[in-house]
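[job 4471] stage=fold_predict status=RUNNING
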Amino acid sequence: MEYSQFKTQFPISLDAQQETAVQTVDGPVLLLAVPGSGKTTVLVTRLGYMCYVRGIPPERILTMTYTVAAARDMQARYAAFFGAEQAQRLEFRTINGVCSRIIRYYERTLGRTAFRLIEDGAQKSALLGEIYRAQSKEFATESTIKALQTAITYAKNQMLKREELSAVEVEGIDFAAFFDAYGQALRERQWMDYDDQMVYALRILCRYPQILHAVQARYQYFCVDEAQDTSKIQHTIIRLLAGQSGNLFMVGDEDQSIYGFRAAYPQALTEFYTVYPKAKVLYMEQNYRSTQQIVAAADRFIQKNHNRRPKHMKATQGSGPAVRACSVYDRQKQYAYLCKLAENCTEETAVLYRDNDSALPLIDRMDRLGIPYRCRQVESLFFSNRVVRDITDIIRFARNQNDGELFLSLYYKLNAGISKVMAQIAADHAEKEGRTILECIAASSAASPWTQKQCRALQTHLNNLLRERADRAVYRIVHFMGYGEYLEGRGGDLTKADILEALGAQEPTPERLLERLEELREVVLRGGTGEDCPFVLSTIHSSKGLEYDRVILMDVADGLLPKVLPEPNAEQAQLDAYEEERRLFYVGLTRAKRELAIMTFRKAGLESSFAQEIFPSKAEPRQQPATEIKKAAVVHKPDESRIRAIAKDYFPGVRLVHQAFGPGTLVSRSGDICEIAFDRGDTKKISVVVALRNGQIRRE
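[job 4471] inference complete, writing structure tokens
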């Protein structure tokens, strides 16, 4: 069949770049496809061209994609284009699925039995929890198990060497030692996990050439979809399989690589010529999804990344509304605005955010108000996170200040210099003496004067926090009771505390917050009010590959989205992480078909470098109708290392001026928490780093 006949017989309508990609079959080919450029259509059409025009038997073609769902979708689309019979002769598999077949072939040809695959998630979680308990002496929370699973996947997919494992961080353990113990436990049980399928398949292909040759003899053409999400070990396996024929077709876009935490390896696209010197690199740059305004803003934004190939996205759709800035004062005002928008929503609208935590205060409010919404893949790991558990345990301890078990899990997180022996004695004897545990330590001659003073202060805090609004209680725990300092000292993340504080703003007491968290966990698991609801909440990761008439990006602020900012003279790893944050934002921008809005904030500390790039001029952009819509004056976030250096100059005796409280004298300091006696007569404790970051204090 001639190509002209092929186009006439089947429902095919392609632009010039797409036609070139369809007809380029032999040798290594990399196709870089911008968002909305018809990538899947081209890949499926190319398979039809190979079979009908080039006469290649379908059984000689292996198409690999990222997920089982994507493989099924591609096979269904091929069947719709070219018929179900031939679609059944083509193979569409995940790379893990290919590796599983290699292992089965190894068993059959060599008469050996491979390790058993752990398919029961609960069984794997139990093993991880058992090893974590043995190493840390603590029980692993659900979120810790998830973090361990992610880290293990990263290490195996990135093919990390033994000395590189120490750079992987999971709070509370030495990951390198944990990884070794986990591997040993699997081998003792003769188990392998999902990622081990690739590890063992690669080992088989390298050790047994006859198996590699058998696979290469069966397949002569290899197609890889979503190549930017493919990991280092997967690219290594693909390179081996395609090595003999060299007929490798990879489709992807390094600008949409957003799975670095799962070891996605976009360098395979930017370094394609290095691996395959005779390769052809093709481009599809026409965006058929979005208006000219959205395409122009997104293309201008992504050009600032360095680890990418030079290409420009071009719009084929007509003009539409300008990209809008929705400026509100703070995150609480953002939730109120989005709830109001959702109440009257009749058109498809997606609110996108960086991670699931961002959605929780919004879901909380919408549930209270009975506003319909639907939510894509919200996880409930927030509720079992260690930071959330610690703060809620402190509230529970305030409710029962002689709970020895709770105290022994918390005492070292409160920055009071309490030793383990001292904590145990007080927990055992306080109630018998008619005192609280902290009162017992404060009265103990074994405690230093400083520890006695800290315990008296903590006692006062515990007595007060149950009587105040829940968000103020959370703030007290983090900023005045030593927990924030403990967390920062361990490199922990305070964003969970910020979300907890936002949830607490809706509750009159901390005890009511504890009840609401249990209710909210169930609300989150339900995932919304129905599949037909036009108002959608989704992480950007979950929205990849999807499109919506109207998109609103929320929590756009430095430290939230992007999560990380490069410091001066940053190492390559930090620069790579920042480039991924930019790619993530770009993916969010390009989900919008007709309307795109970006939530920004006027409150100090919530400035957005990304929003400033989208709205670079001083003139105000067109704004979303709302009572609180003004363009935020963008202020660059101060360098964190410089702030911490300046903070060292704030020590007892220093005179300073606070933006709200006026002049005063710093009388004492414990870590980052300073006690300041203000000239107007009152004394307050503040975090000096936070105050400097927000421009609230200066030396007199």
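[job 4471] summary: The first strand starts at residue 29 and ends at 33.
[job 4471] exit 0
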